[in-house]
Each structure stands twice: as C-alpha cells, then as structure tokens.
Design goal:
The chain has 81 residues and is mainly α. Helix 1 runs antiparallel to helix 2 and helix 1 runs parallel beside helix 3. It starts with 8 loop residues before the first helix and ends in a 9-residue tail after the last helix. 11% of the residues are buried.
C-alpha cells in the first residue's frame, strides 16, 4: 500500500487553516465596523461565508478603500458599499 498521498496532509491542513483564518478575520471586521448595518451586513456575511477566499478579500478591499477615502476626506465618500 502506497503512502505517498500522506505527504499532502500538512499542506492541506495549512491551506484549510489559512482559509479559516482569512474568513474569520473578515467576519470579525464586518461585525466590528459601524458603517455597515442591516441588510448590507447580512449580504456581506453571506458573500464571505459562501465564497470564503474571494468574499473575504472583496470585503477587506472594500473596507480598506472606504477607510482611505474617509481619511482623505473625499467629498461624497460613500461608506462601505
């Protein structure tokens, strides 16, 4: 019986850990921000949970963009979409 497949277990475990950490960080960030409430928060939560990597990266990118726009004082800087 070949055990060559066992060498991939640590890499797979690390990948799962990274995805879970990214998703948890995005969800924590989502619930800590006061700019998103109600239906938008539920929508973002669904996106992050259904598309863990893409949703989390999208949320963090939108959050960073809105934070930078607000810090720069851009007129009409919309809160987090």
């Amino acid at each position: 019986m070949s055990v060559d497949y066992l060498m991939w277990i640590p890499a797979a475990a690390l990948l799962v850990l990274l995805v879970l950490t990214l998703t948890a960080g995005a969800l924590i960030s989502l619930f800590r921000t006061g700019e998103v409430t109600g239906a938008r928060r539920v929508l973002w939560c669904a996106v992050v949970l259904l598309l863990p990597v893409a949703g989390a990266v999208a949320w963090l990118a939108v959050l960073q963009h809105s934070t930078r726009a607000a810090a720069a004082g851009e007129p009409g800087a919309d809160p987090v979409a």
